[in-house]
Amino acid sequence: MDDTFLHINYPTIEQLQKIVNESRPLQFLSEDALNITGEVSKEWMINQEISVWKETFTIRLVEVQRSLAYLVHFKSLGINDSTWLHKEKGKVTYFPDFDEKNYLHKDFFNFYVDVFFSKGFSSLEILAHILFKSFDIRTKKNISFYEAKKGLMDKDPLLHERLTEVTDSEEIKKGKRFRDNIIHNFPGTQISSPFLTNINKITLINDEKYEIKHSFGADNLEYTTSDDVVTICKGYWSCLMDIVCIINKHYE
Fold it and tell me: What's this model's pTM, rounded to 2 decimal places?
């Protein structure tokens, strides 16, 4: 019987709590944040709906924090990927310092990284529903955090400005690039393909052409080490908490 899975070491409650305590504290939307005032009957109905969305947002943030704690835990068990590529004449070796446990830890680490970014970015889409209701934002497009923030330009320019400072930060941009690669390209937690296709647009007089070049080799390989992934995740988590704090402070 293969005893590989005997090496799985899930964290205890105490270990999880220690990781959580070492990360940015979890913040929730305050009770008064984003509630509306006005006609009593209409106000009550909308605030009840906002309350439901707030509860959903709270649950999602807890899930994001939990996935962050789990990925940090499995990283701490050992993923020796600082050297992820070894080149020899006519040969390359992936993860030369890995043993069986390293591969197992990395499998679980990668899983919780995917969960983190799925939950992390969807939390902003949940927040978008709250903003749409709170500010009566109208759009012909689908509800999204981007559209919600765009709507704030007219509804509440100051809140828009403060949120934009966070969403334009390098931490958010790194998180978005990493998440986009998980969905659309090679995940950063996986060594990319040695095959590379470059499409260059060549503009001529009254014409446009595209030059396509194919290449193959170890120099095309890309990978994000687990240390760097943890840094990206913690940076994105901190930005989420900044967004919550900005909204709460806006309604003090």
Answer: 0.86
